[in-house]
Amino acid sequence: MGLFEVCKSFEFDGDVSVRGACIMKMFGLDLDDVRDRQPIHQVKFELADGGICFITGPSGGGKSVILRELYEQFGEDEKIMLNDISADREESLIDCFDCELGEAMRLLSKAGISDAFNLLEKPKHLSEGQQYRYRLAQAFATGKKVIFADEFCSTLDRLTAAVVACKTARFARKEGFTLIVASSHDDLLADMQPDVVVIKRGRGKTEVVGRKVNKAEG
Questions:
Q1: Which of 84, 104, 206, 208 is surrounded by the fewest CB atoms within 10 Å?
Q2: Are strands 52-56 and 206-210 parallel, antiparallel or unpaired?
Q3: Residues 146-167, buried b or exposed e (16+ Cβ, 10 A)?
């Protein structure tokens, strides 16, 4: 897979509304203060084919920025974003897969769906957590080798999230998928045992933990 590097910032364009100017005055800020405080999202690490990268940190810290920048570094034929897979389907869940029946059931089972009643239900009528697992199975079915997911397992209860995270990591390693996911729920680290952990600390440091990594200030 190789070395990945992200350095992303959002420049302040200086366009301040009347209310914005009032806020700046209230807090004793000028335009230079605002420009100087724009965060820089920066990280560098190595990830092998079939590896798992877990991006974590508090909400609003920049996890999604890092994830999107990494997503842009892959070609359309090799990547898929879990969040982009629609569950608004009219067919029963088992009929939403183009592969053979046995393979479809295998993929759904690996994603945590094996109940007969769920397999016969339309995806749009499933619970939010079940829809998430459906999207995961669909991502496996595409055959694209790099799977991205923002807010990974965030809509699942923590016990189900742990089970899905563990099974997903195990299946990805067995089948050679690369997973790059972001979540503020760092309780999943033990279940996924990622090769690289990116800890995004908002405007502060971005820490990288794992094999053959380079730490970068963010």
A1: 84
A2: unpaired
A3: bbbbbbbbbebeeebbbebbbb
For tokens 């990268």, the residue is 53
Length of the chain: 218
| Helix then strand then coil, % of the chain, to nearest 5 | 40, 20, 40
Full set of structural domains in the chain with CATH: 2-78+144-214 (3.40.50.300)
What gap in Å lies between CA 41 and CA 179, rounded to an integer?
A: 20
- Tell me the pLDDT tens digit for each residue of 18-35: 898 898 889 998 888 777
Phi/psi for 190 (5° steps) reads -65, -35
- For residues 53 and 195, the answer to whether their CB atoms sit within 8 Å is yes
pTM, full prediction: 0.86
